[in-house]
Design brief:
ph1033 like fold
């Protein structure tokens, strides 16, 4: 069995919410290649620079956490000629975790001044320690 890997996918929060609702992941505007790198059991975090894809309101927070469940990368016709690739994911209940307070502790961000560099790629792997730190900030406290 392959070792579990951990991924960050960049998307606006409104697009992330759609993915959570349907139990799927899409990456890099529907490309297949990023999704093919993932294996069942891998961890996924979504980072949302903005609230809405077409909007200008900044968010800069991790907005969803899940685990790859589907073996297949498949296409889905969303209409209007857009037929993105998808992967099935189980999402966990969470709260948004703003990135600003996490930047100093995240090892994948080497240059803390230019912290947004990695996110420009839209999809990238991170170490388990960073995944666990972000996940701990996204956890919902029981009793609230």
């Amino acid at each position: 069995m392959n070792e579990t890997r951990y991924w960050v996918i960049v998307a606006s929060k409104n697009h992330v919410q759609n993915g959570v609702r349907f139990g799927i992941a899409q990456a890099n505007h529907g490309k297949a290649a990023p999704l093919k790198r993932m294996q069942v059991g891998d961890g996924i975090l979504y980072y949302s620079p903005k609230v809405e894809f077409e909007g200008s309101e900044k968010l800069q927070a991790f907005t969803a956490i899940g685990q790859v469940t589907g073996n297949e990368v498949y296409q889905f016709d969303m209409g209007g000629g857009f037929i993105p690739y998808r992967r099935d994911v189980k999402y966990f209940e969470c709260q948004d975790a703003p990135i600003q307070e996490l930047i100093p502790a995240l090892t994948f961000i080497e240059n803390k001044q230019s912290w947004g560099y990695h996110f420009r790629f839209g999809f990238f792997e991170i170490p388990k320690t960073d995944f666990d730190l972000i996940a701990s900030q996204m956890a919902i406290e029981k009793g609230k």
